Amino acid sequence: MSSIELSVVRTFLLGLQERITSTIAEVDGQPFVADAWQKEPGETLQGNGITKILEQGRVFERAGCGFSHVRGHRLPPSATQHRPELAGAPFEAMGVSLVFHPRNPYVPTVHMNVRMLAATPLGQDCEPVCWFGGGMDLTPFYGFDEDAVHFHQVCKDTLMPFGADKYPRFKQWCDEYFYLKHRQEQRGIGGVFFDDFQELGLAQSFAMMQSVGDSFLQAYLPIVERRQDTPYSAKERDFQLYRRGRYVEFNLVWYRGTHFGLQSGGRTESILLSMPPLASWSYQRPNEIGSPEERLYKEFLVRREWV
């Protein structure tokens, strides 16, 4: 991929970050704080980025959206487990990643990420190998069928122009990836996820990644608007914090994005922007039979077709 094309990817990602954060700031009534950072030459990783964070807002207790563009001398193991021929290769990566933790337990937590990675095989005089990845997934604390259907319908409609097979494939990939193996439990209701993707050619693969990023607000905002003013009590808040503990477990134990950032020497504060401000754990917590909390486990934290 040429430097001109890389600049196009960077411009899109920076614009996407700005569009999402400015819209969310309007919904919340509080602006994001922008923290620009630089990794200087000589460090393990070189590059720059902008971390945008909103904390203790009216709607969002913590909302982080980060852009990064980094270069490194060796791809970390988390990026080469499916591409062993690129082990140790120099690389360049850029992306936008976000996690929003709402205040109201009836508003689901959401994650979205779009990214590009280019690596140059060692000992070969050839062009870099480039691929794209990304997706979005929803993690409710209290389940509503209409929210899940809406989220998945937007994901499906977004991918349809790139092939009728994409949504079913990426939906299954998401279900399999966002799974807490040590709990034998889904993280949420899923969405779509893809990685190491270049099968449509660079131009169309990039277009697909753009489409996923551009559809995020359409997928998530109607749910926020529907649920943000729902009354709740200490019981619902307590359950929200307990379920957030599962989110922390997944991101620290299984999430490749966290592993890639830490293994490659990335900026820790930005890598961990996905962490909620508060979370809790309890030992073998029971749920009342027939309760909304039990319904979450039985009807929403299971793999199912929503559209």
Give a short summary of the structure:
The chain has helices at 3-28, 77-80, 145-159, 166-177, 202-214, 216-227, 234-253, 256-263, 268-271, 292-300; strands spanning 33-39, 45-55, 60-72, 91-102, 109-119, 129-139, 179-180, 185-186, 190-197.
Give the arrangement of secondary structure elements.
Layout: H1 3-28, E1 33-39, E2 45-55, E3 60-72, H2 77-80, E4 91-102, E5 109-119, E6 129-139, H3 145-159, H4 166-177, E7 179-180, E8 185-186, E9 190-197, H5 202-214, H6 216-227, H7 234-253, H8 256-263, H9 268-271, H10 292-300
In words, what does this structure look like?
This protein is an alpha+beta fold and 307 residues long. The protein is built from 10 helices and 9 strands. It has helices spanning 3-28, 77-80, 145-159, 166-177, 202-214, 216-227, 234-253, 256-263, 268-271, 292-300; strands at residues 33-39, 45-55, 60-72, 91-102, 109-119, 129-139, 179-180, 185-186, 190-197. The strands form 2 sheets. The chain has a 7-stranded antiparallel sheet. A two-stranded antiparallel ribbon has the order 7-8. A hairpin with a 4-residue loop joins strand 7 (179-180) and strand 8. It is globular, with a radius of gyration of 19 Å. The model has no long low-confidence stretch (mean pLDDT 91).
